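Appendix B, record 7
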Amino acid sequence: MNTFNIQHTVEERFLRYVKIDTQSDPISNTCPSTEKQKNLALLLVQELHEMGISNANMDDNGYVYASIAATTTKKVPVICFCSHIDTSPDCSGTNIQAIVHKNYNGKDIVLPHQSIILKPSKHPELLNQIGNDIITADGNTLLGADDKAGLAEIMDAANYLSQHPEMEHGMIKILFTPDEEIGRGVDKVNLSKLAADFCYTMDGETAGTVEDETFSADEVTLIINGVSVHPGFAKGKMENALKIAAALINNLPKTELSPETTELQQGFIHPTSISGTIEKAVIKFIIRDFNDAQLLELETFLKNIADKTMLDYPKSTYELIVKEQYRNMKQILNQYPQVLENAIEALRRTGFNPIKSSIRGGTDGSRLSYMGLPTPNIFAGGHAFHSKQEWVSVQDMQKATETILHLVAIWAERS
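Structure tokens (predicted):
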């Protein structure tokens, strides 16, 4: 197994990055959705400059681009590494107080606030971390390992490459994106400026995994037009859109086709919000499946439920609007087998028995792949994303850095 003599900077970088609040906002129409994401983007640019990567820059939309020049005359594909700057709006990312639990002993980790306890029985991956250093927040916020672990790992690898020009590699590109957590991570990306052939997101979970498959995803908006009448004179006339919406949601399956009842390759229909008045109500859904045809079947299934529900409200109408979010990247990655093969070999050289898995969700790579930049996802090491129990292992982050470096070397060797 090849190894690198790395003076790792990944832990201190990660602890520095999580202090900066970068929570994205799905309500905002700007890019980035929150101006505070640029605070971290600018720091990343500054640190890249300090490494000697003088072309690093942030554009007006908060995207960070950088290039590390090739050290070989061989014709090597241009490889990009990508992570996202924002943290999830699902849990507070303000005033994160990170705690490093040194030399983990396999017992419960009790956080100082909110009575948050990380139990190995609920987080079995902790049992693979005995002797390692675990980082958590203090129980009041998420940690931000999703995806500041990925940021720190790419920066750690960039730091090594800048200090070791003797290492043979092709042109390396770096891309840091805003707003991934709200599904807009590549909305404003400039692929011509990036000029990469293949890409890897560092945004996965368990160490040793590479993911070449995601959900296909649509957003569905269901608009119900009820009948509003003064409540004092409403008998036989009013059809309350809010009650229709409640009835429709109640008609969804109770034991299948929801996030809380599905796993592995099973898709779901998931209502995410409901709002409105007597006259008009709006239900937002996300629909997910690994198979595009089955995704359409789920949407038809939802429409059938709506049709059935509306039979009890003959004066009311509804409209169903489907918006594509992303598609399963496996359909693209299958056309470029070397992208995954090289990642698997990099994991082997880092000391792992590689695990190829699917994501019950999406990454920037889902859309990048369909935009012409094939992009599987490599582990970043974080766990319990979007929650106050989020954690990451320092040693797993170090291994992710090493995986990046092995991957860079492999592309040069095999070209």
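Remarks on this record: The chain has ten helices and 18 strands. The first strand starts at residue 57 and ends at 58.
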